[in-house]
Design brief:
The complex is a heterodimer of chains A (435) and B (518).
Chain A (H helix, E strand, L loop, with lengths): L32 H9 L4 H23 L1 H7 L6 H23 L3 H9 L4 H30 L7 H18 L4 H30 L3 H21 L38 H18 L1 H11 L1 H6 L4 H24 L15 H11 L4 H21 L6 H15 L1 H8 L17
Helix pairs in contact in A: 2-4, 2-16, 3-4, 4-15, 6-10, 6-13, 6-14, 6-15, 7-8, 7-9, 7-13, 7-14, 8-9, 8-13, 10-11, 10-15, 11-13, 14-15, 15-16
Chain B lengths: L2 E10 L2 E11 L4 E5 L6 H8 L7 E6 L2 E3 L4 H6 L2 E4 L11 H5 L14 H15 L14 H13 L6 E5 L7 H16 L3 E6 L2 H7 L2 E6 L2 E6 L5 H9 L17 E11 L5 E11 L3 E5 L6 H9 L6 E6 L2 E2 L5 H6 L2 E4 L3 H5 L6 H5 L10 E2 L2 E2 L1 H14 L16 H13 L5 E5 L7 H16 L3 E6 L2 H7 L2 E6 L2 E6 L5 H8 L9 H4 L10
Classes of the chains: A mainly alpha (435), B alpha/beta (518).
Chain lengths: 435, 518
């Protein structure tokens, strides 16, 4: 511990509440709002650490943009002769890059001009947001899956594999049955959750029965799932009848997730899975904070010994938590198979959503609300970087993600860089136990 | 060395941990600092050892003012500290542990094992502390590990003042006697000792001067001739009864019957060896024994956390083998675990959540898989009032409570539900005088309602104060069941594997009745 953190701060004395106040004339001493706000800003609490992590990441990203751009770099070689060249070029580069990310993920200013001029409709205006939410949707699920396991002290690295099995489960129900939409779609979604849940339960069972560490077993299961997917796509049962590419049969229209905004514009891809994701986030919050199951998850996550002494079944808690976590990751797979991948799943449909879920859960500090926000942020970075290609290197968004997580995971670093004060309860870091 | 503290004050935010502390330790003196948990003892010692910096006030060594920015400064100034929780590297040898941080090296930084060994032997010889420099620390008994800590503290460049922070908390009675003798020898050799404790008998036995602190302030300077109740009331701030009032037990039917219980550890050692024990309704059976003789395994077997390899456990005549811990708890088994931080509480949970930790699924605290927060809160408010748990609110985390209040949370949890049998393991460990008094009276009241109580304690005083019958455990077996008026020496002998009847003069005289044998 640094000595700095122990120096007593002059805490503003909260006005003492006096019972049965005899003098109503006395104006209540109001805490100066600006002072309290400033104090909050200069404190390394978890909200401000997140905000500063984002700002620092964009700053470092800007430096890297400048360094990696050949022309801008060359202007710095004659900095002392013509400093304005270097400074202006750097500014333009950073401004244009970040603007391109913004236009690809939130609002395209060109489209806005066209919209005002009447040559673009409202749907065109929403396209960047729709893309952001489309990429965010699977991340909401995988983030929640990893976050829920975190709370039980489990590090579920296997979300990627669970997602793949969820994708296959939803896909198989999605093309093989002939049912009306009100039955077919829910069934396909549930099949995804069940497949993911069963696959997710494996590391839980292994841990409960043999003590095998879930990190090791779930990493290995990811590889098994990825290779299984490639094999499965090539089987006659799944492989597309019309294409020679490595792609599966399309999902029946009765099992496809309806898009939310296509009435505005055909190209708006965001679909019902986003709503399901938000609902699942609320359910997970309820489960953790209001249910006896969540009580057990949190108790075991904090202290398995005391939980066992209180009569809780530790192994069963691990198994069920991993199964539920896997089921949520499986929903991400269902969202992909029945949504953006409905015309045929390839071995590329899953991208890295399962792994990105780990960073989303970390960024959201394993809280459902935080996870949804983090998933939207990562979705925005993804959508922005894809649309800004090739002007902005696609790696910049991965870089930004990495730097953000680095700072979030090391709040002491943020505090040291910005000379923030240590908050009352100390710095908050998220850690998985038993690792 | 003469140490003087003048007006030493430490504030954490608006909280004053130590307020204007004056204290003088004369050379070669044993100065005891007595105080309840949370009175500010540890903060004081941490300032002396350079871990914390005082807010105001002065530390003078031999009339010269000093300022420590870290333990390194304190060590250089001649202060050595033995922490309550040992800071040893288990797999290292004694010599390696003693040279930790100031390794003896030859040229080019090569470690010199012989120099390290010699340094240990020199210190052990100088102060009469027997130690094998090549022994591996984690294999040593706790008392010997502590001796390693003392030698480590003494082998500083010029250690003249030794701080001992609650040194007897983990020791057996025999080891405590030995430690107190070591302290006397050290003092006689000119080392000043600052002795932190809340155990009155030990303080009485060795201290030359006693400073009592309460809520960060010095409230009394006492002579060692002061009576125990004088010291206790100074610590607590009110009159304290050290005697537990109890009526004779009314034992009725057998509550717990353990027959032939055998538990084999992973290493193949029989930690419980055909143990037989019966506890009746309405009596407290004290299980005396040196720690590590199977007490933990017995308690965990009764709760169902360990599956015994042989034997039976019956509660009220019904065999409970095969029932889950949850079922046994629901059937009325109470358990106060010996290690409350590990087994008793979820530190990050609120006081309210901890109070329902083993009944969170039961009505009225939950229904249909949903926790009823209002009922949990109400239960917490009631328990806090009834058991006098000092907390700012039921929503405060358990880790913010002092040790005594954490223990009260566990006691409240176990006593707030229907129960038939209670296993209380070290119920007052690390708990101050006031809370101990409270816990003892609750245990007696519990007995009088007809609950059977198995009291597992390594403190003979506690066993004597509470037990209606004493069983002594040694090597996983009950080696004797005796009446509560059995002399200390007899039980002490049983605890190390001796016989009840070997009351010949040779052994009986080794224990001095100086109070250091608790």
């Amino acid at each position: 511990m640094s000595t700095e953190s122990q120096t007593p701060d002059e805490q503003p004395e909260a006005p003492e509440r006096i019972e049965a106040l005899p003098e109503p004339e006395q104006p209540e001493p109001r805490p100066n709002f600006m002072r309290l706000f400033g104090r909050y800003l200069s404190e390394a609490n978890s909200v401000m650490v997140t905000v500063y992590s984002l700002l620092l990441a964009f700053f470092i990203g800007a430096v890297l943009l400048i360094v990696s751009d050949e022309y801008t770099r060359s202007t710095w070689t004659y900095f002392f002769a013509r400093p304005q060249d270097a400074l202006l070029n750097s500014w333009y580069l950073v401004r244009d890059s970040y603007l391109a990310l913004f236009e690809g993920s939130i609002l395209n200013l060109n489209t806005l001009d066209k919209f005002i001029a009447g040559t673009a409709d409202f749907g065109d205006l929403l396209r960047p947001l729709s893309e952001t939410l489309t990429y965010a949707t699977p991340l909401i699920f995988t983030g929640l899956a990893v976050g829920l396991a975190f709370r039980a002290g489990l590090f579920n690295i296997g979300a990627q594999g669970q997602l793949i099995f969820g994708m296959l489960g939803a896909l198989i129900i999605g093309f093989s049955l002939d049912l009306p939409i009100w039955l077919h779609l829910p069934l396909a979604v549930i099949a995804g959750a069940v497949a993911g849940g069963l696959f997710g339960a494996i590391p839980g069972v292994l841990k409960a029965s043999t003590g095998a560490h879930e990190v090791i077993s779930s990493i290995m299961l990811n590889n098994i799932a990825a290779l299984f997917l490639v094999w499965a796509i090539s089987t006659q049962f799944l492989h597309s009848e019309t294409s020679s590419q490595l792609v599966t049969k399309p999902v029946d229209t009765s099992a496809r997730l309806p898009t939310l905004l296509s009435s505005l514009n055909e190209t708006l891809r965001v679909n019902l899975a986003l709503v399901i994701g938000v609902v699942v986030a609320i359910v997970v919050w309820w489960l953790l904070n209001r249910s006896t199951f969540g009580f057990r998850i949190r108790a075991v996550g904090f202290n398995e010994h005391a939980s066992a002494t209180a009569g809780m079944h530790i192994g069963r808690t691990y198994t069920t938590t991993m199964a539920v976590s896997g089921a949520i990751a499986g929903l991400a797979g269902a969202a992909l198979a029945l949504g953006v991948g409905a015309s045929g799943v390839t071995n590329n449909t899953a991208l890295e959503y399962g792994f990105d879920g780990i960073t989303v859960a970390l960024l959201g500090r394993a809280n459902p609300g935080g996870i949804v926000a983090a998933a939207v942020l990562f979705g925005a970075l993804k959508a922005g970087s894809l649309s800004a290609q090739p002007d902005v290197p696609v790696d910049i968004s991965i870089l930004l993600q990495a730097i953000i997580v680095l700072f979030i995971a090391a709040p002491a670093l943020v505090r040291a860089i910005l000379h923030l004060r240590t908050p009352r309860g100390g710095l908050v870091t998220l850690e998985a136990k038993g690792w | 060395m003469r140490l003087e503290l003048k007006g030493l004050t430490k504030k954490f935010g608006s909280f004053t941990a130590d307020d204007d502390i004056d204290l003088v330790v004369e050379p070669g003196q044993i100065h005891a600092v007595l105080g309840e948990n949370g009175a500010g003892k540890s903060t004081l010692m941490n300032m002396l050892y350079g871990i914390l910096q005082p807010t105001s006030g002065e530390i003078l060594i031999d009339e010269e003012q000093v300022a420590f920015s870290g333990p390194g400064d304190a060590i250089a100034a001649g202060i050595g500290m033995v922490h309550q929780h040992f800071k040893l590297v288990g797999p290292f040898s004694v010599a390696d542990n003693v040279q930790l941080g100031r390794e003896h090296t030859r040229t080019a930084g090569v470690l010199s094992a012989s120099a390290a060994r010699k340094a240990v032997l020199d210190v052990s010889e100088q102060y009469g502390l027997r130690l094998d420099p090549d022994a591996i620390c984690e294999d040593l008994p706790v008392g010997v590990q502590q001796r390693v800590e003392i030698v480590k503290a003494l082998s500083g460049p010029k250690t003249e003042l030794l701080i001992l922070d609650e040194p007897t908390a983990v020791l057996t009675p025999a080891e405590i006697t030995e430690l107190l003798q070591i302290m006397r020898n050290l003092a006689a050799a000119g080392t000043s000792i600052l002795f932190i404790s809340h155990k009155l008998k030990e303080v009485q036995a060795v201290a030359d001067t006693i400073t009592v602190i309460r809520r960060g302030k010095v409230v009394a300077e006492l002579e060692p001739t002061a009576s125990e109740s004088e010291m206790a009331s100074a610590m607590v701030g009110r009159a304290v009864s050290l005697q537990v009032d109890k009526t004779p037990a009314q034992p009725a039917e057998a509550r717990l019957e353990v027959k032939g219980l055998t538990v084999v550890s992973g290493a193949g050692v029989k930690v419980l060896d055909e143990l037989d024990l019966t506890v009746h309704s309405g009596e407290i059976v004290g299980l005396a024994g040196v720690e590590g003789n199977g007490q933990t395994e017995l308690a965990r077997s009764i709760l169902g956390l360990i599956k015994p390899d042989a034997g039976s456990i019956a509660v009220d005549g019904e065999d409970v083998q095969g029932r889950s811990p949850a079922r046994r708890i629901a059937d009325g088994l109470g358990y106060i675990p010996e290690d409350r931080g590990r087994d008793g509480l979820v530190a990050e949970f609120s006081v309210a959540e901890n109070l329902v930790l083993n009944q969170y699924r039961d009505r009225p605290f939950a229904s249909l898989g949903m926790v009823n927060a209002a009922k949990v809160h109400q239960q917490a408010v009631d328990s806090i009032a009834e058991f006098d748990i000092r907390t700012q609110s039921p929503d405060e985390s358990a880790s913010s409570l002092s040790g005594g209040n954490q223990q009260k949370v566990i006691i409240a949890r176990e006593f707030s539900r229907p129960r038939r049998f209670l296993v209380a393991a070290q119920p007052t460990r690390g708990v101050d005088v006031g809370a101990t008094e409270f816990i003892h009276s609750r245990l007696i009241a519990e007995r009088d309602t007809g609950t059977g109580v198995l009291l597992i304690s390594s403190e003979l005083d506690e066993i004597y104060a509470l037990a209606d019958r004493i069983a002594v455990i040694y090597n996983g077996r009950i080696v004797g069941e005796v009446a509560p008026d059995t002399p200390r020496e007899v039980i002490g002998r049983l605890m190390v594997g001796g016989q009840i009847n070997a009351e010949t003069e040779a052994d009986a005289t080794t224990d001095e009745p100086n109070g250091g044998d608790r």
